[in-house]
Amino acid sequence: MSYRISIKDDILHLQFIGHVNGLHVVKVIGDEQFFPNLHKVNFALFDFSAAQEVELSLEEVKSFGTIGKIEANFIDNLHVVIILRNENGRARAEHFINSVGCQNWKFDISLDLPSAFRCINKPNPS
Fold this sequence. Notes:
Elements: E1 3-8, E2 11-21, H1 22-30, H2 35-38, E3 43-55, H3 58-71, E4 78-83, H4 90-100, E5 105-110, H5 113-119
Helix pairs in contact: 3-4
């Protein structure tokens, strides 16, 4: 499996592992643990820090952002932190945020898990 989904203390943590491409993200979207649980939490960590490689085109990122924009109609309040593998992913993360374009959701970008927890004002469980 190229990702893990865990839910704890009002936080959905989606962690990508190994090689990540558009097909892996599509699998997450179709996973029965993802959207139903995203609707139940107030915080989401989209974590690419354990990925060895991320191959997502800006067009793919825009498509996933559009899906997020649709979901924002059903999720009133969500704070999303995108945890980058490295600074090279910042442009993709910003493109995703701009593609969602939702005023109800708050977005942050982080380079590691401890910083991500600080963004959402939660203690790091590890």
